[in-house]
Structures are given as structure tokens and as C-alpha cells.
């Protein structure tokens, strides 16, 4: 019963290939220094790329990026075909149109249960001013609706 935002975490593998996956296990950790976290199943095929890489980007998806979230969550598809992106400051792909992007140094990892928790130190962040967030709750995607005047 906990609604979350939706992200796509991206990196470059040791071979230079692009790696990316949909994740909703994203959270702020600290403002000083700026730290964020996300988690990945130990059974994930991309675990090695993220565990050994030095940098990754967390792309917070906008409401108009639902299809992208579904693609990067699917198996057996070319996740990157036709996806607009550019290399970030450390080479991790930054997705075009994201509501926000956090470019991170892979600061630490913690193995807990069947997941690995990644803590990233934010080196650069940006946001799309006109974007509404893509939300996920109860197995369905949503977008925001303000509750009223502040």
C-alpha cells in the first residue's frame, strides 16, 4: 500500500555496453554529502555490471514515460532500441525526458536478504521543470493529481 516513484537505473558495463533496469526502490539518504539508495535483486542479470561499475544514473521517470518503464522491466527485449539518451558526466546513460536525473558515484553496497542495496553519491542532478512524475501503486501506474490549494 505504499506508492512510489518509478526510476530507470542506467550504467555502462565493463565492455562499454549499456545496462538499464526499472526500479522503484529509490530513496534519499543524506543531503551532506548528497546520497541516494536503490536496491537490486541478487538474481538480476545486471548485478555484476552495477556491482563492479564506478558510476550509474538514476532516471526518475515522468508520467509520459510509462512505456519506457515497462520496456526496461521486460525480459528478452532490446531495452535500448530507439531510446534517446546521452552520456552523463561519468559515462552512464542519461535518458531524455526524465523528470529528474541523479548521476552517481557507486559509493557502497550492502548485501541484505535477496537484494543488494546500492548507495550512490550524487555528483550531478537535473530536473525537467514541466514534468509530472510517474507513480506506481498496487501493480498499476499512475500520475499525480494535486489534492487542492496549499
Automatic annotation (TrEMBL):
Q: Which Pfam family, giving just one, matches this sequence?
A: Flavin_Reduct
GO MF annotation terms: FMN binding; riboflavin reductase (NADPH) activity
Q: Which UniProt keywords apply?
A: Oxidoreductase
- Keyword hit for Disulfide bond: no
Instruction: Point out the coiled-coil segments of this chain.
Output: none
Family indicated by similarity: Belongs to the non-flavoprotein flavin reductase family.
Name listed for the protein in its UniProt record? Flavin reductase family protein
Source species, please?
Answer: Paenacidovorax monticola
Amino acid at each position: 500500500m505504499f506508492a512510489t516513484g518509478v526510476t530507470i537505473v542506467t550504467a555502462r558495463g565493463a565492455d562499454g555496453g549499456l545496462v538499464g533496469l526499472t526500479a522503484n526502490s529509490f530513496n534519499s539518504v543524506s543531503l551532506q554529502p548528497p546520497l541516494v539508495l536503490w536496491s537490486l535483486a541478487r538474481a538480476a542479470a545486471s548485478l555484476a555490471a552495477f556491482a563492479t561499475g564506478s558510476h550509474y544514473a538514476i532516471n526518475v521517470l515522468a508520467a509520459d514515460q510509462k512505456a519506457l518503464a515497462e520496456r526496461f522491466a521486460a525480459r528478452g527485449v532490446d531495452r535500448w532500441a530507439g531510446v534517446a539518451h546521452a552520456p552523463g558526466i561519468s559515462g552512464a546513460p542519461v535518458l531524455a525526458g526524465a523528470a529528474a536525473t541523479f548521476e552517481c558515484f557507486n559509493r557502497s553496497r550492502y548485501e541484505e536478504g535477496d537484494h543488494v542495496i546500492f548507495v550512490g553519491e550524487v555528483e550531478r542532478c537535473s530536473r525537467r521543470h514541466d514534468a509530472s512524475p510517474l507513480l506506481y501503486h498496487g501493480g498499476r501506474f499512475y500520475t499525480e493529481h494535486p489534492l487542492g490549494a496549499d
